[in-house]
Amino acid sequence: MEKLSPEPVALIKKRRNEALSQLIDSIPYISFLGVGFDRRGDEITATLPFKEELIGNPSLPALHGGSIAAFLEISAIIGLSWAQIWHQIEDPGLGASSSDDAGKFTLPKTIDFSVDYLRSGLPRDSYARAKVNRAGRRYASVHVEAWQDNRDRLFAQGTGHFLMPQPN
Amino acid sequence: MKNKMIEKKKKAVEDFFAVLPHSISLGMGIDFIRDGEVGMSMPYDSKLIGDPQTKVIHGGAVFALLDTCCGAAAMSHPEQIGPTATIDLRVDYMRPATPSQRIKAIATCYNLTKNVAFVRAVALDNNEEKPVAMAAGAFVTGV
To answer: How confident is the model at residue A97 (pLDDT cuts 50, 70, 90)?
Structure first.
């Protein structure tokens, strides 16, 4: 019996990274804020490198509540979309991993988003991770935590509800 | 005397919000300031697009406008002295904002206590009959 050799790790990484960057690169607002994503397996961490334009109160200085909220909402939408496309990336038989299809991926629509500002955002890099608490066929509920220097000292958290893209 | 106070307060709010780097980068401007009520708006820009298929701007940009407008409304309340900070803000996205149209926000500080200002706001595009989004939040007072 012929033994199937495992797929080379470099190929797996390339496929996953390409799928993630196609999702992100299509959204102008993500590059406007400068949000990036770190991937470890299926876990992604959103990063927001500090820049002057993110500041709200220049006399403190502190990050603008709006840039924090946008960062959290981006993390939630990408986290949710990533969870949706993950099985398609992993099973190329489903046919959705070709470069064409990823660009046409329909994003979930935000129904509502709620942000808790726990402490002021310092003028330094921020990180966020989203957890999909429920993803049904029509609705999803996502929670996001954001921190700066210490993972356990959150400076903001958010919860949002999303309308899932409907297959036509 | 009272009018002079109001003008001074209006000026302070205007000056505070004119220099916020993130608000500047989004092109936000103040439309009006009254006691506890502020109007602000922001132009449509393709760099703010959140959904490339529909060209609709990202919810985060609308959130930023509503947050700024709510903060300004809290600051412009007659009994509020000094700046404020957001404790929490919830935004309901009721419909996508029409691409290429300016987004206006109107925020009202409807209650102010010793420690908290309660604010709500609405975001509109050219169709003012149907709001794009609504916000409700709490802000720090008496800083």
So the answer is: very low
